[in-house]
Automatic annotation (TrEMBL):
It holds the Pfam family ThsB_TIR. This is TIR domain-containing protein. InterPro entries: ThsB__TIR-like_domain, ThsB_TIR-like_sf. Residues 7-105 form the Thoeris protein ThsB TIR-like domain.
Length: 166
């Protein structure tokens, strides 16, 4: 499997448990899940100045192959960092994987940050096999769709889920 550096964006107050679970899936040999986490590159304290934090986050984004955003109940309301991270990822043309913590396989317009609603992004439920599939495959699909000037939300067909045992 190719190395895919992942940047993960999420609500640190309410969705940290899901982020930590993704790291646990990676460490646990029972899961077919590879999560090369760019957040491990350098640590920044929450008490750092906003400019310092954003500078560090931008370095991490520059080291990323894919942008993963965990979409929970409050994600769409977070502007200071989450919206900024999404904007930078879009400017950098990073493939975006929107992971629905509510389990939906498609975009959830009620929870999805408005900036992502029309962006080229694949929307998947929070589950190791489909997230791993998206991390492995979406960068290639994203590149193809971009070259064809296709935009908007994308979902995997039911056949992909069947193939993965869902």
């Amino acid at each position: 499997m190719a190395y895919t550096a992942c940047y993960t964006c999420f609500d640190g107050d309410t969705d940290m448990n899901c982020y930590n679970l993704m790291k646990a899936w990676h460490k646990n040999g029972k899961f077919n899940f590879t999560f090369d986490n760019v957040h491990d590159l350098e640590q920044v304290r929450d008490t750092s100045a906003e400019e310092t934090i954003k500078r560090s986050l931008r370095r991490r984004l520059n080291a990323s192959d894919v942008f993963v955003v965990l979409i929970g109940k409050s994600t769409k309301y977070l502007y200071k960092f989450v919206r900024w991270e999404i904007e930078v990822a879009m400017e950098m043309n990073l493939p975006i994987i929107a992971i629905n913590l509510d389990g939906r396989r498609t975009i959830n317009n009620d929870l999805c940050p408005p900036i992502l609603r029309d962006a080229l992004a694949v929307h998947v439920p929070f589950s190791p096999d489909i997230v791993n599939y998206a991390i492995t495959n979406w960068p290639y699909s994203h590149r193809d769709y971009k070259s064809q000037r296709i935009s908007g939300s994308y979902r995997y067909n039911d056949s992909v889920y069947s193939q993965l045992g869902y």
